[in-house]
C-alpha cells in the first residue's frame, strides 16, 4: 500500500518545485524529503525524479501518479471535513493567506468577529501575494485565500472554488500643492511628468501601474520604493511624489493630500478562494461567512458576482455571463 505521507510530499514537490521549500512546508529536513521520495520510488517501482541541468524535476510517470492520487487526497480531506461537520463544536485551526490590504481590512476584523462567537477557533494568518496564496492553497498549506485582480481572474485548478467579495478602485494621491490637486480625476497620461512613490517590482499592483504607464508611452519616474502603503501616503503628504493606491488602503482623513479618481476606472476584484473538499467544515464555513459579511461593509458591491465561480467554464460561457452582467 502506498504511504499517504510520501504521496503528500510528492504533491508538495509538484507545487513548490524545490526540496528546500518542501522541507520548510512539511517541517522536515531536505534529506528527509529526498529519502521519502526515494522510498516512494521503491514502493512504486518507478522513477519519479530526474536531473535536468542543475535542477531536479518530476518525470512523466510522477506527474501521472500525482494526477491519480491528488483526488484521493482531496477525498480523504472531504471525509475528515464531513466528520468534523457532524460535530457541534467550532474548534481547530484556520489558516488564511491574503495580501496586505485585505489582511488589514477584511481578514483581521473577520477573524476577530469569529473568535468572539467561537473562541476555540485558532487562526494562522500569512501575508501572501495572490499567486503565492493560490499555490499555498492547492498545496494544503492554507485553508482560505483572498486574492485580487484588476481585470479577469486567473483560471483556478479544479479542486478550488471562489466567490467574488466585491471591488474597490485605484485612486491617485497627490499633494495639495501639486498642480493636479484641483482636478477631480486624472488619466495615466496626465501623470507622465510626475515623481512616483511605488511598491517594489513584482507586486501585482506595481506591475499593473507599470503596464498602464507603458501603454500610455512612458515609464513612471520612480523616486521611492516602499513595501508599505502607509509610506507611500507619507511621501505624498510631504510632496515627495504621487501615489496610486487601492481604495481600501486610503484612510478617510488625509493630511495635505488630494484624492483623485483615475480614468478610465481601474476596478480591483476581490475573491475568497477555498478548497472544495473543505466546504462543509464548520470552522471554514463560519470564517467564510464572516469574511463575506465584513466585505459587504468595506468593498463596493455593485459589480460583485455573489455566486460561486466555476473555473472550468468555457470562454463562450464567460462571454455570455459578462454580457448578462453588463445588462444588469
From TrEMBL:
Q: Where is the composition biased (Basic residues)?
A: 314-328
Which UniProt keywords are given for this protein, alphabetically ordered?
DNA-binding, Transcription, Transcription regulation
| One MF annotation (Gene Ontology) recorded for this entry | DNA binding
Q: Does the keyword Transcription apply?
A: yes
GO cellular component term, pick one: protein-DNA complex
Region: Disordered; residue ranges are: 305-328
Nucleotide-binding as a keyword of this entry, yes or no, is no
- Check the record and name the Pfam families matching this protein: HTH_1, LysR_substrate
Give the residue spans that cross the bilayer: none
Residue ranges constituting the HTH lysR-type domain according to the UniProt record: 2-59
Q: Which family does it belong to?
A: Belongs to the LysR transcriptional regulatory family.
Protein name (Swiss-Prot/TrEMBL): HTH lysR-type domain-containing protein
Amino acid at each position: 500500500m502506498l504511504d499517504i505521507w510520501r504521496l503528500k510530499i510528492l504533491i508538495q514537490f509538484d507545487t513548490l518545485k524545490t526540496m528546500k521549500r518542501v522541507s520548510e512546508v512539511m517541517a522536515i529536513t531536505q534529506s528527509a524529503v529526498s529519502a521519502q521520495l526515494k522510498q516512494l520510488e521503491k514502493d512504486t517501482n518507478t522513477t519519479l525524479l530526474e536531473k535536468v541541468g542543475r535542477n531536479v524535476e518530476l518525470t512523466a510517470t510522477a506527474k501521472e501518479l500525482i494526477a491519480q492520487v491528488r483526488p484521493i487526497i482531496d477525498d480523504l480531506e472531504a471525509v475528515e471535513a464531513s466528520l468534523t461537520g457532524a460535530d457541534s463544536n467550532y474548534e481547530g485551526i484556520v489558516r488564511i493567506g491574503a495580501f496586505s490590504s485585505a489582511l488589514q481590512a477584511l481578514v483581521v476584523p473577520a477573524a476577530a468577529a469569529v473568535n468572539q462567537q467561537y473562541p476555540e477557533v485558532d487562526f494562522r494568518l500569512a501575508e501572501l501575494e495572490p499567486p503565492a496564496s493560490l499555490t499555498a492553497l492547492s498545496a494544503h498549506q492554507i485553508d482560505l485565500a483572498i486574492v485580487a485582480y484588476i481585470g479577469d481572474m486567473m483560471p483556478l485548478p479544479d479542486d478550488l472554488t471562489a466567490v467574488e467579495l466585491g471591488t474597490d478602485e485605484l485612486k491617485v494621491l497627490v499633494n495639495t500643492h501639486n498642480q493636479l490637486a484641483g482636478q477631480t480625476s486624472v488619466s495615466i497620461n496626465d501623470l507622465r511628468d510626475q515623481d512616483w512613490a511605488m511598491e517594489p517590482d513584482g507586486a501585482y499592483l506595481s506591475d499593473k501601474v507599470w503596464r498602464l504607464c507603458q501603454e500610455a508611452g512612458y515609464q513612471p519616474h520612480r523616486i521611492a520604493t516602499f513595501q508599505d502603503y502607509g509610506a507611500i501616503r507619507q511621501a505624498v503628504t510631504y510632496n515627495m511624489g504621487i501615489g496610486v493606491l487601492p481604495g481600501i488602503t486610503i484612510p478617510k482623513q488625509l493630511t495635505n493630500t488630494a484624492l483623485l479618481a483615475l480614468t478610465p476606472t481601474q476596478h480591483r476584484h476581490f475573491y475568497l478562494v477555498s478548497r472544495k473538499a473543505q466546504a462543509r467544515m464548520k470552522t471554514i464555513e463560519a470564517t467564510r461567512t464572516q469574511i463575506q459579511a465584513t466585505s459587504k461593509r468595506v468593498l463596493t458591491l455593485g459589480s460583485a458576482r455573489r455566486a460561486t465561480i466555476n473555473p472550468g467554464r468555457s470562454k463562450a460561457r464567460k462571454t455570455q455571463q459578462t454580457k448578462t452582467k453588463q445588462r444588469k
